Each structure stands twice: as C-alpha cells, then as structure tokens.
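Hi U.,

Before I forget, here's the chain from the pilot set. I'm dumping it here mostly so it's searchable later in email.
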Amino acid sequence: MSYDEELEAVLERQYQELLRRREELERRRKLQQLAEEAKKQEILRMILTPEARERLANLRLVRPDLAKIVEDHLVALALQGRIARQITEEELKTILAEVYERTRKEYRINIREK
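Structure:
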C-alpha cells in the first residue's frame, strides 16, 4: 500500500467518523425537540379548556406562525405561575386578537401618476 493510498484510507475513516457524529448529534437534537414539544403540549393541556385547545389547533392549521407565538406566550406565563386557572375559548380569542394586532404587517401600495 502506497503512502497516498494510506492517507486516503485515513481521510476516508475520519470523514466517515465525522458523518457518524453529525448524524448522532442530529438524532439527539430531534429527540430534544420532540421532548420539548411534548412538554409544551402537556402544559397547554393543563392551562386551556378543551374548546380553547381546539381553537388553537384550528389556528395552527391556518396560521402556524401566529399559533406558535401564542403557544409560547401561554407556556411562558404558565411557567412563571401567572396563570391561576384554565383559559377559556373567549379569553383565548382576546389573546389571539391582541397578538394578531401586535404582529400584523400592514401593506400600503402607493401609485404615483407621472
């Protein structure tokens, strides 16, 4: 075996090792995300009434970005101990309206005549 062949074999082993490590890190990251998502859903189950959860699920289908903001906000409030009872659908509607107003982008189109 020549020096070049040995070097190539060593480099190939190192490359394969790096790929294996990267796959392992990716697998761990996905497991961590799944665990965090499960914890978040459990907290939402505890702080929302069934009707409110259903409304949030429907919103997630239509506006996943807005639903994520609201979910993260509610979970943060729950973890801080600022939610004393379950949130009803009407209260969730109010929260959704407030968040929508804060995150809404307004587009204006100006047409200039020459």
